[in-house]
Amino acid sequence: MNKRAAGATEPAKSKRKKRTRLDPEERKQYLLDAAADVVLEQGVNGLTMESVAERADVSRALAYFYFESRTDLIRELYGREFGRLYDAMLPALEGAGTLEERLRGTVHAYFEVVRHRHDLYAILNAALDGPEYRRDRRLRYRWWEEYVGELVGGQLHVEPSVARVLAVVLLDINARCALMWHRDRLDREEIENLCVQLQVGGIREAFGIDPTQRYG
């Protein structure tokens, strides 16, 4: 016979969620996600090891295990976020299809990243303008210029120096179109198409190449 007194209730079960075990890289990305949330809510000045640990619901010790300092955390966040733009565009540019189709893919990928990360980029760019970060931007830009210049130049059979100029122009057109689209709340499909047509028309006019054809 149950000896529990009449009317007694069962002990309340703990509502604490079980922690999901993440591998080290997943945990690091999780902490960077938390850091991005803090920056969006409080700005870069509000980003501390403590605020990230609290946001991620982990101990400060764990945060320090992945990042040596606040400076290291900010550097890692900055690198990840701005690397997203290039990481998003490359699969489309390296893929199959005509040059126009691949350019359209890179434009769409760029706009998609801006759609999700514009506000964070704006905060980081405004707050992190020291020599280290300006150098980082130059290095990323130079890498893009050289890599895409080699990729596109080899396929279109144009001189490497000219191809590097083309790579810079393509990236600048993406950036300008995406900025105006986001800032002025323009129709995305219309602006993406305009961006592609500017790139395609410029290539056709400058090099006498038809971007709707396949080149190897």
In short:
With 216 residues, this protein is mostly helical.
Describe, in plain words, how this protein is organized in 3D:
With 216 residues, the chain is mainly alpha-helical. The protein has two domains: 22-67, Arc Repressor Mutant, subunit A; 77-207, Tetracycline Repressor, domain 2 (Orthogonal Bundle), CATH 1.10.357. It contains eight helices and no strands. Helix 4 packs parallel to helix 6 and helix 7 (160-184) packs antiparallel against helix 8. The longest helix is centred in the middle third of the chain and has 29 residues, at 99-127. The N and C termini lie far apart (84 Å).
Provide tags for this entry.
2 domains; 74% helix; elongated; Tetracycline Repressor, domain 2; disordered N terminus; Arc Repressor Mutant, subunit A; 8 helices; mainly alpha; 216 residues
Morphology? elongated
What do we call the CATH topology of the largest domain? Tetracycline Repressor, domain 2
CATH superfamily of the largest domain: Tetracycline Repressor, domain 2
Distance from first to last alpha carbon: 84 Å
| Domains, number | 2
